[in-house]
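Forwarding the complex inputs:
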Amino acid sequence: MENNLLEVEKLNVEYITDDAIVYALNDFSLNVKPGEKMGLVGETGAGKTTLALSILRLLPQKVGKIVSGSIKYAGENILEKPESYMLSLRGRRISMIFQDPMTSLNPVKTVGDQVLEVLDLHFPQLSKEEKNKKVDDMFQMVGIPCSRKNEYPHQFSGGMKQRIVIAMALIAEPELLLADEPTTALDVTIQAQILDLMKELKQKFNSAVILITHDLGVVAEFCDSVAVVYGGRVVELGKVEDIFLRDRKHPYTSGLINCIPDLSSTTPRLHPIPGRMIDPRVKVEGCCFANRCPHCMDICKRKTPEMIYENGHGIACHLFSEQEGK
Amino acid sequence: MLRKKKKPLSEYSSWELVGYRFRKNKLAMLGVFMFMFILLVTLFAPLFVPYEKVIEQNVVDKLQGPSSKYIFGTDELGRDLFARVLYGGRVSLLCGLAIIGIAFVFGAIIGGIAGFVGGKVDTILMRIVDALMAVPSALLAMAIITALGNGVWKLVIALSIAQVSRFARTVRSSVLTLRNMEYIEAAKCYGSSSFRTIIKHILPNGIGPIVVAATLTLGAVILSISSMGYLGLGVASPTPEWGTIISENKVNIRYYPYLGIIPGLCIMLTVMAVNFIGDGLRDAFDPKSKN
Amino acid sequence: MALVEAINLKKYFKTPKGLLHAVENVNFKIDEGKTLGVVGESGCGKSTLGRTVLRLHQATDGQVLFNGEDIFKYKRMEMHKVQRNMQMIFQDPYSSLDPRMSVRALISEPLEVVGFRTKLTKAEMKEKVDTIMELCGLPKDHANLYPHELDGGLRQRVGLARAMVLEPKFIVCDEPVSALDVSIQAQILNLLMDLQDTKKLSYMFITHDLAVVKHISDEIMVMYMGQVIEYAKAEDLFKHPLHPYTQALLNAIPTIDLSRRNREKITIKGEVTSPINPDPGCRFFKRCPFACEDCKKEPRLVEVESGHLVTCVEGKIL
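Prediction (whole assembly, three chains):
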């Protein structure tokens, strides 16, 4: 087997608030290979962002807590490492792009300095000229003229800002890029530009990418493999083609696909998933999707389904487990 | 009402929630308790000591430290400091409340009009307010008192003018943010008049920060009444007022420190109590703070 | 006769930098029971258009006819009468509901405002709110809850109920599903379409999401920086878009249709700027792959096929 770059094993994360405990991730497992383009799809509150923050160990202090499980990055369990180790990891080997380009840049520093800062932190051995050269190259790559290096974030439009954020994330040539809804705040034509750019740069640096999004279309366009997340768990896992094309799907995945209005569909009515998201403050017995599932069986309410693999395609659903199903 | 059973938090109205959060804040409740205590004791001062004591001079007993006969001691004219502090508190507190009240009403009107109407009206009103704000409030008050002559009510007017601008700004900025909320637009959509919109939507949502500002300013106002009193403006001797009391005794404070410490403590405790209340209100009005 | 019609509608805003041409010469007709979709990227003037039609913004020029009568000529009291028939639902389910009012208070508020004139009794009002809540899929026991206790989908239902309670004939929907999760989005879209069927409602559906607009609309109007550049029946527009911008827009949508994955990409350079003191001519000029001298001519919509209007085909201004 190929070595995995990132292995998340049975990760449990809780947020402890004044009045309740929020179970954000429950036995969350996910592997990412070097250079893989993994899409993490799910609705609000599914735990997508929590996963990204856990990998970087940036969960809000005192509130967010990793209860159990492990995160292995390049073979080492980073949950056991000291903070200083994380500092050398963040921005250098793992970097992150946030959803809102308006707030992820410092408004009082020029964009050139902000990109340069990443180099200052992680490559102090480089000379000033070398660093400047690298920054110039990076600007070129993300499609911003170097002459605009000395401008401030507010002088750029939303799409341009996101390009700068990408430049910051990629300049240290990380092995893993966490992109949290990088195009959600942008218009479609700009989204297309940014996705193209990310694809191109991904090819160049060969980083692995975890693209977090709620938009199945974006996943279909960009990713090799997909993890569908619901209620803090991965419910289905596999190649893009398999997820969209094969017939045996997790009921949540097919629900999700059925409820998006698609350009090619002609049905007069959509098929929404009935009910609403489970309350993350309640620890669920059994399958987390049971209360909305059209195929819910007795066992679904009692036992949490295990991930069953079939040709590398994983589904966590009792419908598909041989011995449990009828 | 018969229903005595405590209803669950989820059924609380948003106002009840504000109240609930405020009551849970221990520091704020301490503030309320302290403030009520000071206010009641000063208002019901005649129950403890007759007013004559305030001006009655007893030269034999002058400059006596706190004792069983004179709880807070006496000043250089032999006047009972306890009586003076108690009755002085009436002036300080009532003037403070009056100033806040006046400033609140006028500030809300000016700021509300400026924020809701906008355009030229806003510009003109705000420039006037800016001009007022540019002058240090103590200086402004002094100028007004000098022009109008000395007296408690003139002090109140002078200090409220100085505070109006502050309130006007707070009110205007909260009206401005609220005016752009979609629910205000929705109200316009179903034909709600401006007046109704202000009463039903803007006022309830905007009152929080303004009330907080009011309580926090009350402390500052009591301090400025006292400092005005200390400078001999506004409240003239022999009418007692906490600041005036300190100022009357400034010669003797060095050797008889209780003369400064006791009225000083009163000012400090009141301001502290009011600030606790203000902080508590601010937290209680913040919808993000859960329960 | 169309239920709602706009004739040469214009809305300009004064800004410190100059005159912002937010809506430029817009014409449209919406028949009873039909939906007009308005699509475009942020800043194209689609929301301003919706608000101008409802007179939430004072139009700079032009007319809006409701049942054939120009509503801009109405005095205040007459306007109130029309207003009952023209309502709006908003994008943000968080800021469109007053946080200090319960669900019941929010929904009955429009009735109270109108009640000054129509004199509804308390009981009648309560009954009406109950029916509307049921119609909009709001559980009865939610009446005493406050907006912060509801999720996005339920809030949007409350917003819809508030608009529906006056029994309008026409609703402007300003991105009503953009802030919602896909599964909830589908519920709301279905609800909107059910209501349309039972109540013969007309919608003006404003959105940036082309898939949604295709799903719900009968006719679609594509806007770019204040100008309408293409106007056609929904199927026609998607089957063969004519304007270069529409083509690029359709091409840019990511879809789950994997066969489209390797389609030839039409990426357009650059981004939308705001139309402050715009030069005459087509405003898509700067990003258009076919840009030429012709583009400086004032664009106007020309009917190239029955019901399919466009300003420009492959760089040729019509």
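The first strand of chain A starts at residue 6 and ends at 16.
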